[in-house]
Design a protein that fits this description.
Elements (H helix, E strand, L loop, with lengths): L1 H8 L10 E2 L10 E4 L7 E7 L9 H13 L5 E5 L5 H10 L3 E4 L1 H11 L23
Parallel strand pairs: 3-4, 4-5
Antiparallel strand pairs: 1-2, 2-3
């Protein structure tokens, strides 16, 4: 799952083998789990939604994720979408938890680029300027 790969590239989860996805359909609102320590005592729970750009994540979806976190006694969550969040969804997340991070499609694309996950560099350009020190008389 690319979401876990990006979070791992950001330094979360220690070893890549410690990051795990949950079974599709039986996830109860959780798509992945990332241990924050070597013993797995502290975890971040991840929900990922691939939506069309014009379909936003709404407050009820965030509340469902918060419910899934509560059922597990979880204190940390990350909700990532390829689209965006409504203002109400962002407000609900902010009111409900200090430990819930929302990442929209634009932010996720930036993280992919910043950490080199799922992207490839096709060309780079060097911009040069004249070195005025070179042309000064000795």
């Amino acid at each position: 799952m690319i979401v876990l790969d990006v979070l791992h590239a950001m330094g979360y989860g220690g070893s890549r083998r410690n990051l795990r996805t949950t079974a599709a359909g039986a996830d109860g609102g959780i798509d992945g789990i990332i241990p924050l320590d070597k013993l797995g005592l502290d975890k971040v729970y991840v929900q990922a939604k691939r939506y069309a750009e014009d379909k936003a994540i709404s407050r009820p979806t965030i509340q469902g994720f918060l419910g899934a976190l509560s059922e597990r006694g979880a204190t940390r969550g990350v909700f990532i979408t390829t689209s965006r969040f409504t203002d109400e969804a962002r407000e609900s997340a902010a009111r409900s938890s200090d430990s819930l991070v929302l990442i929209d499609g634009e932010e996720f694309a930036d993280l992919m680029i910043d950490h080199g996950v799922g992207v490839a560099t096709r060309e780079t350009f060097a911009i040069v300027q004249t070195d005025s020190d070179y042309f000064e008389d000795p």
